[in-house]
Inverse folding.
């Protein structure tokens, strides 16, 4: 199953003309492409699917969703081997 997971932007950099962020998903930090949300800023939350930030999200909604995913054990499922394989690919290419 694929999930869109909320995460908080920790830092943003530009790499080869592409904005890339380090995003915290309840303690797991991954690189995320910001091409679909070019105005997203550090400290904001976004829904992320397969390494792309897709939609801005308010902090309370993000925290509630992460808490629910954690309670259901879905974060472990989402960040298992398939996520690692996708995260290992270069973002924005």
């Amino acid at each position: 199953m694929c999930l869109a997971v909320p995460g908080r932007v920790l830092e943003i950099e530009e790499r080869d003309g592409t904005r890339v962020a380090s995003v915290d998903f309840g303690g797991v930090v991954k690189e995320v492409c910001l091409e679909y949300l070019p105005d997203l800023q550090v400290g904001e939350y976004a829904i992320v699917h397969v390494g792309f930030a897709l939609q801005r999200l308010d902090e309370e909604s993000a925290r509630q969703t992460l808490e629910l995913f954690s309670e259901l054990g879905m974060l472990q499922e989402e960040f298992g081997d398939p996520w690692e394989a996708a995260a290992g690919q270069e973002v924005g290419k």
